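Hi everyone,

Forwarding the result from last night's run.
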Amino acid sequence: MKYGKTFDVHNLRRMMRFAENFNDFQIVTELASKLSWSHFIEILPLKSNEARLFYANESAERRFGTKELRRQISRKAFERREIANTQVSDASNVPFNVFKDPYLLDVLELKDNFAEADLEKAILLILGQMRFYLKWLDRYERQEHENPPIGIILCTAASREQVELLELDKEGIAVAEYWTSLPPKTEFECKIKEILSQAKERLARRKLLASGEVLRNIEYFYETKDDDYE
């Protein structure tokens, strides 16, 4: 028996995978009205349901074409959001799923022309200014229907664990690295996996630590000493 059309085995496999991974009828109905089959072809190979739903919702809400969706996946937008979320505690004023870490600023063609030690000192000086500015915005600029203001400090090599232990997120301040250039694909993927694994470990450890003594130790560690400027 001959068929008028060639049977596409690959497409059938994609449909079966789609049925397995998107089995909530309500979600599928909402997404199908905004996304094309080409969008789902890009999303299906992802390893977790959380990642698939993240990119599907992002594409639907922000009206990504398949080219931009492919770009977001290649730049690990989901994983970078997960890394940033590890900073956010239960008592945080920084909402989940708002920031990414690290930020990729390669399009700005910035150059790293300062010492990391000087950068860390500058970050510490900025923290007090950030607190003041956020409180000023909250008191004088925020409208009744608006959420409290939040801030983010970008730096080239944040001392992640120490800064996180200061619990700045309770005051609406997040800290993230920025990268001025995008590494080769393989190196980038390995680096993101490493950072994500470390972030999950820090999150688990932070839940076990008694914050009082730890914070005092960290604040002492970050106090500016006279000999720092010699």
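The longest helix spans residues 116-141.

Cheers,
N.
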